[in-house]
Design goal:
Layout: E1 13-17, H1 22-34, E2 40-44, H2 49-53, E3 68-71, E4 74-77, H3 78-86, H4 104-122, H5 133-136
Parallel strand pairs: 1-2
Antiparallel strand pairs: 1-3, 3-4
Length: 141
């Protein structure tokens, strides 16, 4: 699917992830499984969609090579992205969204630690797990 196929691309909730990261791919599979409303879309950071969708003035430079979340024309990074994504998941994962009370500096410290070591946790991969036809419709490029 391409972004133009969405009725209102600016209203799409899109998870941007590192397509070469096994940890990120595992996380995307988890989100696919627990987002029963199927209201999240997915795009790899390598797809170029982020550059098309978000003006350069609103993008972090350099673009992080981990997860970003685009929702309601806003781009969320690091722990804010994870907690925003969690709002769209079913219980018990939705509970994570309530951890916004933890100071941002500590949340991002934990996020950066995991992001820095993610390749050690799951390694790199040259290909993604093939999604089912229903899941494939939620990947935009």
């Amino acid at each position: 699917m391409i972004l133009q196929d969405l009725e209102k691309p600016q209203d799409a909730a899109i998870v941007f992830y590192d397509g070469t990261c096994g940890f990120c791919q595992f996380s995307i599979q988890l989100v696919l499984k627990h987002n029963r409303k199927q209201n999240l879309y997915f795009a790899s950071l390598q797809s170029g969609l982020l550059e098309q969708l978000v003006p350069q003035v609103r993008r972090p430079e350099p673009v992080p090579d981990s997860v970003l979340f685009y929702e309601q024309e806003r781009l969320y990074t690091e722990s804010d992205a994870v907690l925003r994504i969690a709002r769209h998941l079913n219980f018990p994962f939705s509970i994570l969204s309530h951890f916004r009370f933890i100071p941002l500096s500590f949340r991002n410290f934990v996020y950066r630690f995991i992001a820095k070591h993610r390749y050690k946790i799951t390694g790199r991969t040259e290909s993604c797990t093939l999604p089912s036809p229903e899941e494939r419709a939620r990947f935009v490029a």
